[in-house]
């Protein structure tokens, strides 16, 4: 803000970088979940090893929570007065 950035640009930058990290983490988590489900197939009762509802709902919920956790600090950072930010640096 002190150097001329718009508030929306700051929020977009933080959300964009957060979304990249979230996508990488969800991809790695899904791969690990598929591998673990195959290993635990004999211990799962009443649910298939690759239950589509679980493999769709859980990553969507986690992505929504992670984006909210990224958006809140981004919104707070965009509200900081530029003069206060410059004085602390």
Description:
With 89 residues, the protein is mostly helical. It contains 3 helices and no strands. The chain has helices spanning 7-39, 52-79, 82-88. α1 runs antiparallel to α2. It starts with 6 loop residues before the first helix and ends with a helix.
Task: Summarize the topology.
Layout: H1 7-39, H2 52-79, H3 82-88
Write out key terms for the chains shown.
mainly alpha, 3 helices, 76% helix, rod-shaped
Spatial shape: rod-shaped
Secondary structure: helix percent:
over 70%
Report how far apart the termini are.
14 Å
Gyration radius (Cα, Å) is 20 Å
Major sheet details: none
What order do the helices and strands follow? HHH
Strand content: under 5%
Mean pLDDT: 85
Q: Segments where pLDDT lies below 50 for 5+ residues?
A: none
Q: DSSP helix count? A: 3
DSSP strand tally: 0
Structural class: mainly alpha
Short description:
With 89 residues, this protein is an all-alpha fold.
